[in-house]
Amino acid sequence: MEIKLKSLKFDAGEKLTAFVEKKVARLEKFFLPGVAPETEVTLEDVKEGKKAKLHIHLPGDDLIIERVADTFENAITGAVDAMKEKLTRTKEKLFDK
Question: What does pTM read for this prediction?
């Protein structure tokens, strides 16, 4: 899985980059076999707090989750957890057809 990390208006440190890659890499087990989607993570410091946007490009579909929290780590964790559920539902829809 290819993970692209974009940090808007700040530089993400090594520690944050490693955390993002570790968390997002866990989503790989929820993908269909043989599918290696492109995953884009965007981090932004907004007025409401720290925002994490997780965008997965699947063949024929794009899945997007955004979360805002007090820290980037919490925002990423929330986005990854929500994406797990969304990937599971997407897989179930494909196999129900």
Answer: 0.85
46: β partners? 49
The fold of the 2-96 domain, in CATH, is Double Stranded RNA Binding Domain (3.30.160)
Domain boundaries, the chain: 2-96
The residue ranges of DSSP E strands in the chain, in sequence order, are 2-8, 38-46, 49-58, 61-69
- Would the CA dihedral through 19, 20, 26, 28 be positive or negative? negative
Query: Which residue is listed with tokens 């530089």?
Result: 11
For 26-49, the pLDDT digits (tens) are 888 877 666 667 889 999 988 889
Question: 11 — phi, psi (to 5°)?
Answer: -105, 125
